[in-house]
Amino acid sequence: MSTPAPAAASAAVTRHSRFEDLQALLSGTLLIALAVLMYRHAGLLSGGTAGLAFLGHYASGWRFGTLFFLINLPFYWLAWRQMGRAFSVKTFLAVLLLSAESEVLPQLISFRTLEPLYAAVMGGLLMGTGFLILFRHRASLGGVGILALALQERRGWRAGHVQMAVDVMIVAMALWLVEPQKVLMSIAGAVALNMILAINHRPGRYIAQ
């Protein structure tokens, strides 16, 4: 007697509607924008292109949102070539949203007390959750996220592990701009962020597109 295939294996892949994708882009980027605000207030850093934007912001005083948008421009070609048009468009919109939200949010929220270690870990968890939402709707915030997703889809490498390795290297580069104690806290935040991805974003675990 043959055993029927599991329903999950036989069911067609569920595709997200445009409304679902839009709410995912808004929700994911808002969570990340809140984490960015916490990091800026505490003088911390993140990894990826956001980390590079933080370095530029601290070194030059330029606005984080503007730097983040500009740094991501070269990565759209990689996204288009490796991940396709739909992914590229959603990624561009996500970067645009986060760039705008990171400039508007400081006018809506302020922190009277925010311990740097709490900001690092809580901000990392918020970023990880935001990235998870974006990844599950086949979007990213450019840069390392595109590389991590491409390697996961093509080689089976976990996106969280790839991003964690790059994030730690970028944060370590900040030793000449930020005091070592805050760099260590930033690394703790990067670990918290990427643990969310490594545990919750595994190949084949979430099949909707």
UniProtKB/TrEMBL annotation:
The lineage of its organism: Bacteria, Pseudomonadati, Pseudomonadota, Betaproteobacteria, Burkholderiales. It is a multi-pass membrane protein. It is found in: Cell membrane. The chain crosses the membrane at residues 24-42, 62-80, 92-111, 117-135, 156-177, 183-200. It comes from Leptothrix cholodnii (strain ATCC 51168 / LMG 8142 / SP-6) (Leptothrix discophora (strain SP-6)). Signal peptide: none annotated. One of its GO terms (cellular component) is plasma membrane. Keywords: Cell membrane, Membrane, Transmembrane, Transmembrane helix. This is YitT family protein. InterPro entries: UPF0750_membrane, YitT. The keyword Transmembrane helix applies.
